[in-house]
Protein backbone atom coordinates (compact mmCIF):
# COMPACT_ATOMS: atom_id res chain seq x y z
CA UNK A 1 0.00 0.00 0.00
CA UNK A 2 1.26 3.52 -0.72
CA UNK A 3 -0.10 7.02 -0.49
CA UNK A 4 -0.83 9.46 -3.24
CA UNK A 5 -0.19 13.17 -2.77
CA UNK A 6 -2.85 14.51 -0.45
CA UNK A 7 -2.84 11.36 1.64
CA UNK A 8 -5.15 9.24 -0.51
CA UNK A 9 -4.23 5.59 -0.08
CA UNK A 10 -3.58 3.59 -3.23
CA UNK A 11 -4.18 -0.14 -3.00
CA UNK A 12 -2.93 -2.42 -5.72
CA UNK A 13 -6.21 -4.30 -5.69
CA UNK A 14 -8.64 -4.71 -8.54
CA UNK A 15 -12.17 -5.63 -7.47
CA UNK A 16 -15.04 -6.74 -9.68
CA UNK A 17 -18.29 -6.04 -7.80
CA UNK A 18 -21.08 -8.35 -9.01
CA UNK A 19 -24.70 -7.42 -8.26
CA UNK A 20 -28.18 -7.88 -9.67
CA UNK A 21 -29.52 -4.37 -9.01
CA UNK A 22 -28.08 -0.87 -9.15
CA UNK A 23 -30.01 2.41 -9.03
CA UNK A 24 -30.85 4.52 -10.93
CA UNK A 25 -30.83 1.82 -13.63
CA UNK A 26 -32.76 -0.90 -11.78
CA UNK A 27 -33.69 -1.14 -8.09
CA UNK A 28 -35.80 -3.56 -6.09
CA UNK A 29 -34.48 -3.47 -2.52
CA UNK A 30 -31.75 -2.49 -0.11
CA UNK A 31 -28.98 -4.25 -2.03
CA UNK A 32 -29.31 -1.52 -4.64
CA UNK A 33 -28.50 1.13 -2.04
CA UNK A 34 -25.35 -0.78 -1.07
CA UNK A 35 -24.30 -1.23 -4.69
CA UNK A 36 -24.65 2.49 -5.36
CA UNK A 37 -22.85 3.73 -2.24
CA UNK A 38 -20.15 1.28 -1.16
CA UNK A 39 -18.14 1.17 -4.44
CA UNK A 40 -18.02 4.97 -4.49
CA UNK A 41 -16.28 5.07 -1.11
CA UNK A 42 -13.99 2.18 -2.05
CA UNK A 43 -12.84 4.12 -5.11
CA UNK A 44 -12.23 7.23 -3.02
CA UNK A 45 -9.97 5.10 -0.83
CA UNK A 46 -7.96 3.87 -3.78
CA UNK A 47 -9.55 0.56 -4.78
CA UNK A 48 -9.79 -0.04 -8.54
CA UNK A 49 -13.36 -1.24 -8.94
CA UNK A 50 -15.89 -2.03 -11.66
CA UNK A 51 -19.48 -3.23 -11.35
CA UNK A 52 -21.21 -5.88 -13.44
CA UNK A 53 -24.99 -6.36 -13.67
CA UNK A 54 -27.47 -8.06 -16.06
CA UNK A 55 -29.11 -5.89 -18.69
CA UNK A 56 -32.77 -6.64 -18.00
CA UNK A 57 -35.52 -5.36 -20.21
CA UNK A 58 -36.57 -3.17 -17.25
CA UNK A 59 -33.21 -1.36 -17.02
CA UNK A 60 -33.42 2.38 -17.73
CA UNK A 61 -30.54 4.52 -19.04
CA UNK A 62 -32.11 7.96 -18.62
CA UNK A 63 -29.62 10.67 -19.66
CA UNK A 64 -26.68 8.25 -19.43
CA UNK A 65 -24.15 7.84 -22.23
CA UNK A 66 -23.74 4.20 -23.27
CA UNK A 67 -20.92 2.61 -25.18
CA UNK A 68 -20.49 -0.87 -26.59
CA UNK A 69 -17.64 -2.64 -24.82
CA UNK A 70 -17.58 -5.75 -26.97
CA UNK A 71 -19.27 -9.12 -27.10
CA UNK A 72 -18.40 -12.73 -26.42
CA UNK A 73 -20.06 -16.12 -26.36
CA UNK A 74 -20.47 -18.82 -23.74
CA UNK A 75 -21.78 -22.35 -23.83
CA UNK A 76 -24.84 -22.89 -21.65
CA UNK A 77 -27.20 -25.86 -21.70
CA UNK A 78 -25.36 -27.22 -24.73
CA UNK A 79 -25.90 -24.06 -26.81
CA UNK A 80 -23.63 -21.17 -27.76
CA UNK A 81 -25.05 -17.92 -26.41
CA UNK A 82 -23.87 -14.45 -27.40
CA UNK A 83 -23.49 -11.76 -24.74
CA UNK A 84 -23.23 -8.09 -25.60
CA UNK A 85 -21.48 -5.78 -23.15
CA UNK A 86 -22.61 -2.20 -22.56
CA UNK A 87 -20.45 0.13 -20.50
CA UNK A 88 -21.62 3.28 -18.68
CA UNK A 89 -20.30 5.55 -15.96
CA UNK A 90 -22.56 5.74 -12.95
CA UNK A 91 -24.27 9.17 -13.16
CA UNK A 92 -23.80 9.98 -9.47
CA UNK A 93 -20.59 8.23 -8.47
CA UNK A 94 -18.74 7.90 -11.79
CA UNK A 95 -17.57 4.31 -11.36
CA UNK A 96 -17.63 2.00 -14.43
CA UNK A 97 -20.64 -0.29 -14.80
CA UNK A 98 -20.77 -3.18 -17.26
CA UNK A 99 -24.15 -4.54 -18.35
CA UNK A 100 -24.32 -8.04 -19.81
CA UNK A 101 -27.05 -8.46 -22.43
CA UNK A 102 -28.63 -11.74 -23.56
CA UNK A 103 -32.31 -11.79 -24.46
CA UNK A 104 -32.83 -15.48 -23.78
CA UNK A 105 -31.51 -15.57 -20.20
CA UNK A 106 -30.98 -12.01 -18.97
CA UNK A 107 -34.00 -10.10 -20.28
CA UNK A 108 -36.13 -10.88 -17.23
CA UNK A 109 -35.43 -11.96 -13.66
CA UNK A 110 -36.29 -15.62 -14.16
CA UNK A 111 -33.99 -17.04 -11.45
CA UNK A 112 -33.81 -20.73 -12.45
CA UNK A 113 -31.41 -20.01 -15.31
CA UNK A 114 -30.81 -16.27 -15.00
CA UNK A 115 -28.37 -16.36 -12.12
CA UNK A 116 -26.34 -19.43 -13.17
CA UNK A 117 -26.08 -17.98 -16.68
CA UNK A 118 -25.11 -14.54 -15.35
CA UNK A 119 -22.46 -16.05 -13.07
CA UNK A 120 -20.90 -18.11 -15.86
CA UNK A 121 -20.99 -15.07 -18.16
CA UNK A 122 -19.08 -12.96 -15.62
CA UNK A 123 -16.26 -15.49 -15.40
CA UNK A 124 -16.08 -15.91 -19.18
CA UNK A 125 -15.99 -12.12 -19.49
CA UNK A 126 -13.05 -12.02 -17.08
CA UNK A 127 -11.19 -14.69 -19.05
CA UNK A 128 -11.82 -12.83 -22.32
CA UNK A 129 -10.61 -9.46 -20.94
CA UNK A 130 -13.99 -7.75 -21.32
CA UNK A 131 -13.52 -5.76 -18.11
CA UNK A 132 -10.85 -3.06 -17.61
CA UNK A 133 -8.69 -5.40 -15.52
CA UNK A 134 -8.20 -8.99 -14.45
CA UNK A 135 -9.63 -8.87 -10.92
CA UNK A 136 -7.72 -9.80 -7.81
CA UNK A 137 -11.07 -10.19 -6.04
CA UNK A 138 -14.64 -10.76 -7.16
CA UNK A 139 -17.05 -9.38 -4.56
CA UNK A 140 -20.30 -11.36 -4.90
CA UNK A 141 -23.60 -10.26 -3.39
CA UNK A 142 -26.39 -12.59 -2.28
CA UNK A 143 -27.81 -15.55 -4.15
CA UNK A 144 -27.76 -13.79 -7.54
CA UNK A 145 -23.96 -14.15 -7.83
CA UNK A 146 -23.51 -17.12 -5.53
CA UNK A 147 -22.14 -19.64 -8.04
CA UNK A 148 -19.13 -17.49 -8.95
CA UNK A 149 -16.91 -18.88 -6.14
CA UNK A 150 -17.66 -22.44 -7.32
CA UNK A 151 -16.78 -21.59 -10.93
CA UNK A 152 -13.56 -19.85 -9.86
CA UNK A 153 -12.48 -22.90 -7.87
CA UNK A 154 -13.57 -25.33 -10.60
CA UNK A 155 -11.52 -23.49 -13.22
CA UNK A 156 -8.57 -22.94 -10.83
CA UNK A 157 -8.49 -19.21 -11.51
CA UNK A 158 -6.12 -17.04 -9.52
CA UNK A 159 -8.93 -14.87 -8.18
CA UNK A 160 -10.10 -14.50 -4.59
CA UNK A 161 -13.83 -14.41 -3.91
CA UNK A 162 -15.91 -12.75 -1.22
CA UNK A 163 -19.65 -13.22 -0.86
CA UNK A 164 -21.77 -10.77 1.12
CA UNK A 165 -25.02 -12.18 2.50
CA UNK A 166 -27.60 -9.42 2.70
CA UNK A 167 -30.43 -11.77 3.70
CA UNK A 168 -29.81 -15.46 4.42
CA UNK A 169 -33.47 -16.32 3.82
CA UNK A 170 -32.97 -15.93 0.06
CA UNK A 171 -30.97 -19.04 -0.85
CA UNK A 172 -31.84 -19.93 -4.43
CA UNK A 173 -32.80 -23.58 -4.55
CA UNK A 174 -32.65 -24.88 -8.12
CA UNK A 175 -32.53 -28.25 -9.86
CA UNK A 176 -29.06 -29.73 -9.59
CA UNK A 177 -28.92 -30.20 -13.37
CA UNK A 178 -28.10 -26.48 -13.46
CA UNK A 179 -24.48 -27.50 -12.89
CA UNK A 180 -24.54 -29.66 -16.01
CA UNK A 181 -26.00 -26.74 -17.98
CA UNK A 182 -23.03 -24.66 -16.82
CA UNK A 183 -20.57 -27.36 -17.85
CA UNK A 184 -19.73 -28.37 -14.27
CA UNK A 185 -19.82 -31.95 -13.04
CA UNK A 186 -22.75 -32.51 -10.70
CA UNK A 187 -20.36 -34.08 -8.18
CA UNK A 188 -18.82 -30.64 -7.61
CA UNK A 189 -22.03 -29.51 -5.93
CA UNK A 190 -22.73 -29.90 -2.23
CA UNK A 191 -26.12 -31.14 -1.13
CA UNK A 192 -27.84 -31.26 2.21
CA UNK A 193 -29.37 -34.68 2.75
CA UNK A 194 -32.97 -33.54 2.24
CA UNK A 195 -32.05 -31.39 -0.76
CA UNK A 196 -30.12 -34.19 -2.47
CA UNK A 197 -33.22 -36.38 -2.33
CA UNK A 198 -35.24 -33.70 -4.10
CA UNK A 199 -32.44 -33.04 -6.60
CA UNK A 200 -32.06 -29.45 -5.46
CA UNK A 201 -28.94 -27.32 -5.41
CA UNK A 202 -28.77 -24.56 -2.79
CA UNK A 203 -26.88 -21.80 -4.61
CA UNK A 204 -26.16 -19.67 -1.55
CA UNK A 205 -24.74 -22.70 0.26
CA UNK A 206 -22.32 -23.20 -2.63
CA UNK A 207 -21.15 -19.61 -2.17
CA UNK A 208 -20.58 -20.10 1.56
CA UNK A 209 -18.58 -23.28 0.96
CA UNK A 210 -16.43 -22.09 -1.95
CA UNK A 211 -15.92 -18.38 -1.19
CA UNK A 212 -12.63 -17.42 0.46
CA UNK A 213 -14.46 -15.03 2.81
CA UNK A 214 -18.12 -14.59 3.76
CA UNK A 215 -19.46 -11.27 5.04
CA UNK A 216 -22.86 -10.15 6.26
CA UNK A 217 -24.29 -6.69 6.72
CA UNK A 218 -23.85 -6.37 10.50
CA UNK A 219 -21.65 -7.98 13.18
CA UNK A 220 -24.62 -9.28 15.19
CA UNK A 221 -26.26 -10.86 12.15
CA UNK A 222 -22.95 -12.63 11.40
CA UNK A 223 -23.17 -14.28 14.82
CA UNK A 224 -26.91 -14.92 14.63
CA UNK A 225 -26.83 -16.85 11.36
CA UNK A 226 -24.50 -19.42 12.91
CA UNK A 227 -27.33 -20.40 15.28
CA UNK A 228 -30.22 -22.74 14.53
CA UNK A 229 -32.74 -19.97 15.28
CA UNK A 230 -31.46 -17.60 12.61
CA UNK A 231 -29.45 -19.92 10.35
CA UNK A 232 -32.28 -20.75 7.90
CA UNK A 233 -30.96 -24.31 7.63
CA UNK A 234 -27.39 -23.22 6.85
CA UNK A 235 -26.09 -22.67 10.38
CA UNK A 236 -23.96 -25.83 10.33
CA UNK A 237 -22.41 -24.83 7.01
CA UNK A 238 -21.66 -21.36 8.36
CA UNK A 239 -20.17 -22.71 11.57
CA UNK A 240 -17.89 -24.81 9.39
CA UNK A 241 -16.67 -21.52 7.90
CA UNK A 242 -15.98 -19.96 11.31
CA UNK A 243 -13.01 -17.61 11.24
CA UNK A 244 -13.89 -16.52 7.72
CA UNK A 245 -17.36 -15.09 8.40
CA UNK A 246 -17.42 -11.37 9.20
CA UNK A 247 -20.09 -8.77 9.86
CA UNK A 248 -19.70 -5.24 8.51
CA UNK A 249 -22.49 -2.77 9.26
CA UNK A 250 -23.97 -1.05 6.23
CA UNK A 251 -24.03 2.73 6.10
CA UNK A 252 -26.22 5.39 4.56
CA UNK A 253 -25.39 7.87 1.85
CA UNK A 254 -25.45 11.07 3.87
CA UNK A 255 -25.04 13.39 0.89
CA UNK A 256 -28.07 11.79 -0.78
CA UNK A 257 -30.29 12.42 2.24
CA UNK A 258 -28.94 15.95 2.60
CA UNK A 259 -30.87 16.68 -0.60
CA UNK A 260 -34.13 15.96 1.20
CA UNK A 261 -33.13 17.82 4.35
CA UNK A 262 -32.34 20.97 2.40
CA UNK A 263 -36.01 21.41 1.62
CA UNK A 264 -37.19 21.58 5.19
CA UNK A 265 -34.51 21.56 7.89
CA UNK A 266 -31.53 22.31 5.72
CA UNK A 267 -30.01 24.92 7.99
CA UNK A 268 -29.39 22.48 10.80
CA UNK A 269 -28.54 19.45 8.66
CA UNK A 270 -26.05 21.38 6.55
CA UNK A 271 -24.33 22.82 9.61
CA UNK A 272 -24.19 19.34 11.09
CA UNK A 273 -22.45 17.91 8.03
CA UNK A 274 -20.12 20.85 7.44
CA UNK A 275 -19.33 21.68 11.07
CA UNK A 276 -20.10 18.71 13.34
CA UNK A 277 -18.61 20.49 16.36
CA UNK A 278 -21.41 23.06 16.23
CA UNK A 279 -24.20 20.54 16.75
CA UNK A 280 -24.79 21.42 20.40
CA UNK A 281 -25.22 25.12 19.72
CA UNK A 282 -27.60 24.43 16.86
CA UNK A 283 -29.69 21.80 18.63
CA UNK A 284 -32.30 24.23 19.90
CA UNK A 285 -32.75 25.52 16.36
CA UNK A 286 -33.16 21.98 15.07
CA UNK A 287 -35.69 21.02 17.76
CA UNK A 288 -37.76 24.07 16.88
CA UNK A 289 -37.71 23.07 13.20
CA UNK A 290 -38.58 19.49 14.07
CA UNK A 291 -41.65 20.65 16.03
CA UNK A 292 -42.70 22.80 13.09
CA UNK A 293 -42.39 19.78 10.81
CA UNK A 294 -44.47 17.72 13.22
CA UNK A 295 -47.28 20.27 13.12
CA UNK A 296 -47.14 20.39 9.31
CA UNK A 297 -47.36 16.62 9.04
CA UNK A 298 -50.19 16.48 11.59
CA UNK A 299 -52.12 19.01 9.52
CA UNK A 300 -51.39 17.16 6.28
CA UNK A 301 -52.64 13.87 7.74
CA UNK A 302 -55.75 15.39 9.32
CA UNK A 303 -54.50 14.82 12.88
CA UNK A 304 -55.05 17.10 15.85
CA UNK A 305 -52.16 19.57 15.89
CA UNK A 306 -50.50 19.11 19.27
CA UNK A 307 -46.91 18.90 20.41
CA UNK A 308 -47.85 17.03 23.60
CA UNK A 309 -49.09 13.92 21.80
CA UNK A 310 -46.58 11.31 20.58
CA UNK A 311 -46.31 10.96 16.80
CA UNK A 312 -44.82 7.58 15.90
CA UNK A 313 -44.22 5.95 12.54
CA UNK A 314 -43.65 2.62 10.83
CA UNK A 315 -41.90 2.70 7.45
CA UNK A 316 -41.13 -0.52 5.61
CA UNK A 317 -42.24 -3.53 3.63
CA UNK A 318 -45.40 -5.30 4.76
CA UNK A 319 -43.56 -8.58 5.24
CA UNK A 320 -45.32 -10.55 8.01
CA UNK A 321 -42.46 -13.05 8.23
CA UNK A 322 -39.81 -10.45 9.04
CA UNK A 323 -41.12 -7.00 9.88
CA UNK A 324 -43.12 -7.63 13.07
CA UNK A 325 -46.50 -6.54 11.71
CA UNK A 326 -48.41 -8.84 14.06
CA UNK A 327 -46.90 -7.52 17.29
CA UNK A 328 -47.17 -3.93 16.05
CA UNK A 329 -50.85 -4.43 15.24
CA UNK A 330 -51.52 -6.01 18.64
CA UNK A 331 -49.69 -3.22 20.44
CA UNK A 332 -51.73 -0.50 18.73
CA UNK A 333 -54.96 -2.33 19.62
CA UNK A 334 -54.04 -2.16 23.31
CA UNK A 335 -53.63 1.63 23.33
CA UNK A 336 -56.10 4.39 24.03
CA UNK A 337 -55.66 5.75 20.52
CA UNK A 338 -57.16 9.14 21.34
CA UNK A 339 -53.83 9.96 23.02
CA UNK A 340 -51.49 8.65 20.32
CA UNK A 341 -50.78 9.32 16.66
CA UNK A 342 -49.35 6.83 14.16
CA UNK A 343 -48.39 7.12 10.51
CA UNK A 344 -47.86 3.87 8.61
CA UNK A 345 -46.04 3.81 5.26
CA UNK A 346 -45.50 0.57 3.38
CA UNK A 347 -47.00 -2.15 1.21
CA UNK A 348 -46.48 -5.72 0.14
CA UNK A 349 -49.19 -7.84 1.80
CA UNK A 350 -52.88 -7.24 1.09
CA UNK A 351 -54.11 -9.11 4.17
CA UNK A 352 -52.03 -6.97 6.53
CA UNK A 353 -52.86 -3.80 4.64
CA UNK A 354 -56.54 -4.54 5.30
CA UNK A 355 -55.90 -5.15 9.01
CA UNK A 356 -54.15 -1.81 9.43
CA UNK A 357 -56.75 -0.06 7.25
CA UNK A 358 -59.31 -0.97 9.94
CA UNK A 359 -57.47 1.39 12.33
CA UNK A 360 -57.52 4.07 9.66
CA UNK A 361 -61.29 3.71 9.26
CA UNK A 362 -62.13 3.99 12.95
CA UNK A 363 -59.42 6.45 14.04
CA UNK A 364 -58.75 8.70 11.02
CA UNK A 365 -57.57 11.54 13.28
CA UNK A 366 -55.01 9.31 15.01
CA UNK A 367 -53.78 6.77 12.47
CA UNK A 368 -52.81 7.37 8.84
CA UNK A 369 -52.10 4.31 6.69
CA UNK A 370 -50.37 4.81 3.34
CA UNK A 371 -50.05 1.54 1.43
CA UNK A 372 -47.38 2.53 -1.04
CA UNK A 373 -43.76 3.56 -1.01
CA UNK A 374 -43.22 7.25 -1.45
CA UNK A 375 -39.68 8.37 -0.72
CA UNK A 376 -40.68 12.00 -0.37
CA UNK A 377 -43.34 11.14 2.22
CA UNK A 378 -40.90 8.80 3.97
CA UNK A 379 -38.49 11.67 4.52
CA UNK A 380 -41.28 13.95 5.69
CA UNK A 381 -42.15 11.27 8.23
CA UNK A 382 -38.53 10.85 9.41
CA UNK A 383 -38.18 14.59 9.83
CA UNK A 384 -41.44 15.00 11.75
CA UNK A 385 -41.95 11.97 13.99
CA UNK A 386 -40.98 11.57 17.62
CA UNK A 387 -40.40 7.81 17.31
CA UNK A 388 -39.99 5.16 14.64
CA UNK A 389 -41.20 1.63 15.43
CA UNK A 390 -39.03 -1.24 14.12
CA UNK A 391 -40.43 -4.48 15.59
CA UNK A 392 -38.64 -6.78 13.11
CA UNK A 393 -38.42 -10.44 14.06
CA UNK A 394 -34.97 -10.44 12.46
CA UNK A 395 -33.06 -7.68 10.70
CA UNK A 396 -29.76 -8.36 8.90
CA UNK A 397 -28.86 -4.67 9.00
CA UNK A 398 -31.74 -2.24 8.56
CA UNK A 399 -31.42 1.23 7.12
CA UNK A 400 -34.55 2.99 8.35
CA UNK A 401 -33.25 3.28 11.90
CA UNK A 402 -30.17 5.08 10.54
CA UNK A 403 -32.24 7.39 8.35
CA UNK A 404 -34.58 8.17 11.22
CA UNK A 405 -31.71 8.92 13.61
CA UNK A 406 -30.05 11.07 10.95
CA UNK A 407 -33.12 13.32 11.24
CA UNK A 408 -33.40 13.00 15.02
CA UNK A 409 -36.25 10.48 15.27
CA UNK A 410 -35.77 7.99 18.10
CA UNK A 411 -36.03 4.28 17.17
CA UNK A 412 -37.96 1.74 19.24
CA UNK A 413 -36.70 -1.60 17.95
CA UNK A 414 -36.45 -5.32 18.61
CA UNK A 415 -33.01 -6.34 19.89
CA UNK A 416 -31.83 -8.28 16.83
CA UNK A 417 -29.28 -8.16 14.01
CA UNK A 418 -28.08 -4.80 12.78
CA UNK A 419 -30.52 -3.00 15.07
CA UNK A 420 -28.28 -4.00 17.99
CA UNK A 421 -25.20 -2.69 16.20
CA UNK A 422 -26.71 0.68 15.28
CA UNK A 423 -28.93 1.50 18.29
CA UNK A 424 -27.54 2.01 21.79
CA UNK A 425 -30.32 1.27 24.25
CA UNK A 426 -31.39 4.29 26.34
CA UNK A 427 -28.74 6.39 24.56
CA UNK A 428 -29.96 7.05 21.03
CA UNK A 429 -32.94 4.71 21.01
CA UNK A 430 -34.82 1.93 22.77
CA UNK A 431 -34.40 -1.83 22.31
CA UNK A 432 -36.80 -4.51 23.56
CA UNK A 433 -35.70 -8.11 24.13
CA UNK A 434 -38.64 -10.49 23.86
CA UNK A 435 -40.38 -10.58 20.49
CA UNK A 436 -43.92 -9.88 21.70
CA UNK A 437 -46.55 -7.15 21.67
CA UNK A 438 -46.28 -6.89 25.47
CA UNK A 439 -42.58 -5.99 25.45
CA UNK A 440 -43.06 -3.68 22.49
CA UNK A 441 -45.88 -1.91 24.35
CA UNK A 442 -43.83 -1.67 27.54
CA UNK A 443 -40.90 -0.10 25.67
CA UNK A 444 -43.18 2.22 23.71
CA UNK A 445 -44.81 3.46 26.94
CA UNK A 446 -41.37 4.02 28.44
CA UNK A 447 -40.36 6.14 25.43
CA UNK A 448 -43.61 8.13 25.46
CA UNK A 449 -43.25 8.81 29.17
CA UNK A 450 -39.79 10.23 28.51
CA UNK A 451 -41.09 12.46 25.72
CA UNK A 452 -43.98 13.85 27.76
CA UNK A 453 -42.46 14.02 31.25
CA UNK A 454 -38.70 14.36 30.82
CA UNK A 455 -38.19 16.40 27.69
CA UNK A 456 -34.63 17.32 28.63
CA UNK A 457 -33.51 13.67 28.64
CA UNK A 458 -35.44 13.03 25.43
CA UNK A 459 -33.60 15.92 23.77
CA UNK A 460 -30.27 14.44 24.91
CA UNK A 461 -31.27 11.21 23.16
CA UNK A 462 -32.11 13.18 20.03
CA UNK A 463 -28.64 14.71 20.18
CA UNK A 464 -27.09 11.24 20.47
CA UNK A 465 -29.12 10.02 17.49
CA UNK A 466 -28.07 13.00 15.40
CA UNK A 467 -24.37 12.48 16.13
CA UNK A 468 -24.25 8.74 15.37
CA UNK A 469 -21.85 8.01 12.50
CA UNK A 470 -23.49 5.85 9.84
CA UNK A 471 -21.31 6.96 6.94
CA UNK A 472 -20.21 4.44 4.33
CA UNK A 473 -16.61 5.47 4.95
CA UNK A 474 -16.43 3.32 8.08
CA UNK A 475 -17.86 0.31 6.27
CA UNK A 476 -15.57 0.79 3.27
CA UNK A 477 -12.50 0.79 5.52
CA UNK A 478 -13.55 -2.56 7.00
CA UNK A 479 -14.09 -4.06 3.54
CA UNK A 480 -10.68 -2.81 2.46
CA UNK A 481 -9.09 -4.50 5.48
CA UNK A 482 -10.61 -7.81 4.31
CA UNK A 483 -9.64 -7.15 0.69
CA UNK A 484 -6.05 -6.66 1.85
CA UNK A 485 -6.07 -10.00 3.66
CA UNK A 486 -7.45 -11.72 0.58
CA UNK A 487 -4.92 -9.95 -1.64
CA UNK A 488 -2.00 -10.91 0.60
CA UNK A 489 -3.06 -14.56 0.70
CA UNK A 490 -3.99 -14.61 4.39
CA UNK A 491 -7.37 -16.06 3.36
UniProtKB/TrEMBL annotation:
GO terms for biological process: glycogen biosynthetic process. Pathway: Glycan biosynthesis; glycogen biosynthesis. It holds the Pfam family Glyco_transf_5. It catalyses: [(1->4)-alpha-D-glucosyl](n) + ADP-alpha-D-glucose = [(1->4)-alpha-D-glucosyl](n+1) + ADP + H(+). InterPro entries: Glyco_trans_1, GS/SS, Starch_synth_cat_dom. It is an enzyme of class 2 (transferase). Its EC number is 2.4.1.21. Residues 14-239 form the Starch synthase catalytic domain. Synthesizes alpha-1,4-glucan chains using ADP-glucose. This is Glycogen synthase. It comes from Candidatus Gottesmanbacteria bacterium RIFCSPHIGHO2_02_FULL_40_13. The lineage of its organism: Bacteria, Candidatus Gottesmaniibacteriota.
